[in-house]
Amino acid sequence: MAKHTATAVGWGHHHFQKRWLLALLLMLSLSTIIAFLIRAAFDPCDRNIPADSGIVTARHAIQVAHKRASQIAAADPSPLLFMKSKVVLLVSHELSLSGGPLLLMELAFLLRGVGAEVFWITITKPSETDEVIYSLEHKMLDRGVQVLPAKGKEAIDTALKADLVVLNTAVAGKWLDAVLKEDVHRILPNVLWWIHEMRGHYFKLDYVKHLPFVAGAMIDSHVTAEYWRNRTRERLKIKMPETYVVHLGNSKELMQVAEDNVAKRVLREHVRESLGVHTEDVLFALINSVSRGKGQDLFLRSFYEALQLIKEKKMKVPPLHAVIVGSDMSAQTKFETELRDYVMQKKIQDRVHFVNKTLTVAPYLAAIDVLVQNSQARGECFGRITIEAMAFQLPVLGTAAGGTTEIVVNGTTGLLHPVGKEGVTPLAKNIVKLATHVERRLTIGKRGYERVKERFLEKHMAERIAGVLKEVLSKSKDKPRGHLF
Ligand SMILES: *[C@@H]1O[C@H](CO)[C@@H](O)[C@H](O)[C@H]1NC(C)=O
Ligand SMILES: *[C@@H]1O[C@H](CO)[C@@H](O)[C@H](O)[C@H]1NC(C)=O
Ligand SMILES: *[C@@H]1O[C@H](CO)[C@@H](O)[C@H](O)[C@H]1NC(C)=O
Q1: What predicted TM-score, i.e. pTM, was given to this entire model?
Q2: Transmembrane ranges (predicted)?
Q3: How confident is the model over 255-273, as pLDDT tens digits?
Q4: Confidence (pLDDT) at 96
Q5: What number of other Cβ atoms are within 10 A of residue 238's Cβ?
Q6: Does ligand 3 have an atom closer than 6 angstroms to the CB of 410?
Q7: Which domains does the chain have, with CATH numbers?
Q8: Cα of 184 to ligand 2 centre, how many Å?
């Protein structure tokens, strides 16, 4: 990246803003999607600009934050140090820029960071070359992760010699029989199964029949673990192995942006301008893939009801806006059409905005005032966007379901409402509450941030994972391999 020699930056100055915005967006898109992959691309400290020179630029601020983060990292030994020189095989059902694989990659780099020998297998790959897979594999190779073909002698040999095999998501279970065949039972005592889902179709014996015999299962929330216990027992008549709940944490890169007021302000102005939302307007967002399960339809109903309430009671509040981030108009689903029809029918087009799905959520988190987490039925398995929003000091209006109930403290870091139609009016009232009580809104946001700093950072996740790995390793040591049956 070219060195910039700005000596003064006026933020009202359009040219500067544009230029820095470009640099920022570039960095952000990288830093929030695959940031941990490109750490090396950043110059961690820019010695030409002393931190106290009074020159504040977004890039500089980010560099300072990086420097600080790396100093902290150096002073703070990883809880995973005991994994040094251990052989770890990570088995991913796919390789893409989606939650599951990216999380496993974060683990790969944490383990590489402490000197573990890390191997990676992707079970399902498209036959033609895929740019995303190619680039992710190369990032891994650059960081010393050894990428193996899913099948064949090398895969089997590595699985047999590994101190630990991590299977990522329920579907990864297919790989065990397909590849390991008669060796499968020698490997099970060293398998840790990381599960991130709770939809019915994962409860297939085909996927999970070996689950009772692995060293442990690691699940993102207590409710999800409970659900797996129930369903495996009642539907499949199998018993869960030792199960560990590991709440996720925010990446260092997300935290750096969240704690960078200058970067946030630039992003806020830019995104609001692009949506046509004024500085003083109150912006509510639902950031999730658009589908009935994520509850965008019910959110819009609540939002409309909130607008009606404000009008009826002649409340003095700035204009309210809603943004739905996660649309996929190329898919043109019935549900997408239904949402847009509703907006037209209620004539709230100027208040509701649709944004295509994106992996770069930071600009939206910087731009909004409240995150709505409206996932229905059993809710989110964890819902990483919730802790990401809290890092940006945003209050959360969430359904009282799934992982959300373990993240959001009702009344303190957010307000919960019931799932389903019963939740529409409570959510509408909560929307009005946060729109009218600015102080309360800001306080709730701050408390959310404090909660993230206490328990939802990468280092907390690493500590929790370290605890699990220690137990799993000590257990598999006690069990001589191949004597299980
Ligand atoms: C699990 O089953 C118990 C008893 O059948 C029930 O009370 C509980 O709500 C269930 N939990 C989940 C998450 O399904
Ligand atoms: C959103 O996606 C649609 C369909 O893929 C595309 O036509 C449109 O240009 C996209 N909008 C933006 C702002 O990128
Ligand atoms: C959240 O708190 C509000 C206000 O105290 C209460 O009315 C509501 O029932 C609570 N919801 C849940 C799910 O705890």
Answers
A1: 0.84
A2: 20-42
A3: 999 999 999 999 999 999 9
A4: 84
A5: 17
A6: yes
A7: 81-249+460-478 (3.40.50.2000), 280-455 (3.40.50.2000)
A8: 46
